[in-house]
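$ run holo --ligand "S-adenosylmethionine" --emit tokens
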Amino acid sequence: MVDFNQYYTSKNLSDLLSRFITLVEPRTCLELSAGEGALLDALKAKWEGIKCTTVDIDPTNHSLLQEKYPLDEHFCADATSENCINILQDKEYDLAVCNPPFQTINTNEIINKYIKDAFEIEFKYQKKIRAEIIFLAINLLHVKTGGVLAIIVPELIIKGLKYNKFRRALFSNYKLQYLVESTHKAFKKTEAKTYILFLKKEKIDIIYKFTHIKVDSQAFLENENIYDITNLYSPDDSVQKKILPNHYEIIRGNISGKICKTLGLPYIHTTNMVENMSTIEFNENKFPSEYKTAAAGDIIISRVGTRVLGKTNIICLGNVILSDCVFAIRFTNIADKNRFLAYWKTNSDEWISTNSTGTCAKHITKKSLMELIDTIILTE
Ligand SMILES: C[S@@+](CC[C@H](N)C(=O)[O-])C[C@H]1O[C@@H](n2cnc3c(N)ncnc32)[C@H](O)[C@@H]1O
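-- output --
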């Protein structure tokens, strides 16, 4: 198990990150979730005299950083906690660099305040939030006006429909200079496609341009393009939801598991699904048209049931009647289906814990599943 989401930054990626920092001679730098200091190594190689302040939750990393850079300032703390507010107080840095943990965390008043202060938006009714958003907020609040934040974020922050409003606030309050897109698996052991955002603390009221750079798996430059910032978000949060109408369909059964049982026909319900992520096969059946059915290729997901919520089977042959406790996702193209399955295999537990609704009887809604699928497949 990896504690505290400790996927360390590769040297190539750290060097790349330091290369795009436009500041001439930054004197002070903040690094939250500094880990073993890979980013600091790259910064120190470029600006020998830079004074760094690090925060990491892990005492082992904290000691390692103290040993490696004894002249700098190191704190062992949860960067999102009140303790860290006391550590950072109203200090401001020329530069901040960050490879935050990719995870969701519970919101609280401190976190809500950070978001409001940094982006002038509120997420106050959400129970959980992406840690990357909090780390963005804390960093930006502690960078001087005109200073720069370079931060590594997962694809969902850049492309996720759910984060459209957040991106609009982020890129209106801070100027995106570069967006560096890294290939999949830039970090070992994680499927997440990653990006580095280079944000200047400068508010601009016009539509500005940013440079989008693609790098390969070794962090070597592949190509570069200039786009309007509005390419990264929509002015209207509802508009994008209609972008992908023909890529997939989510079908929910229209009869209960109990009724399914009485029909004497093959059906799939939460109680007869097989092991998670396994394939299942059926005969080719002819069913009365009033029943919703799933067919070969469909992904069946249990939408209710405490112990089986999110359980997934893939139909490889035949067809079957669906109970109203399961969804069948039918993709038009195999590449989209594979991308979804790759994501779902590793991240479904975390996604379900954040996105299932209902107080005792948790369930997954069609809308939230659609948002997730749109996020996953809306990438190229
Ligand atoms: C993705 S690693 C980044 C490591 C660093 N950039 C490097 O490459 O060496 C994440 C780091 O964040 C730390 N971390 C996780 N949650 C944290 C939190 N809430 N506050 C401070 N540090 C945290 C972990 O201990 C880990 O060292």
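-- notes --
The chain is about 30% helix and 25% strand.
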